[in-house]
Give the backbone structure.
Amino acid sequence: MTKKILLAVIVLTIIVGCYSKFGEKMSELANDYKHSDILESSTEIVIESEIDPNSTSETSNLEKKKYLAETEVEITAFKKLFTNSKKTDYCCCPKENYSVSFYYLRNNFDYYLVDTTEFKDNVRIYETSYQYSYIVSKALWKSYLKQLEVEK
């Protein structure tokens, strides 16, 4: 009798452990799909600064800057920001220095936020529920914004 109970406990432990790992993997795959789907479905990307990007003060009240990516080249360049990025899990309390709105045929369907102050050499581009984020080179981020500025 005790052998059967012990065997049942071991089997249940294995099943629960596998199910838990399976659930985590499925969640990760769903987030990856959502991110890639957002990037692939976008026909326009609008980036707005929440503070003056050249200011050292987070309390800057200067006019917001707006960047528009609407050509295929500009949208592809945005996608390339993620090529060598590092994906992270839940991130708590990042700053909102930029918002990135994704549009499909002029309809806003999703958005990310960007923290440019947390790291010296990187920016954090994160999903609004903080469930995942991408760490991208700050130099690439600035170069991309400069490219959008010059082309307009």
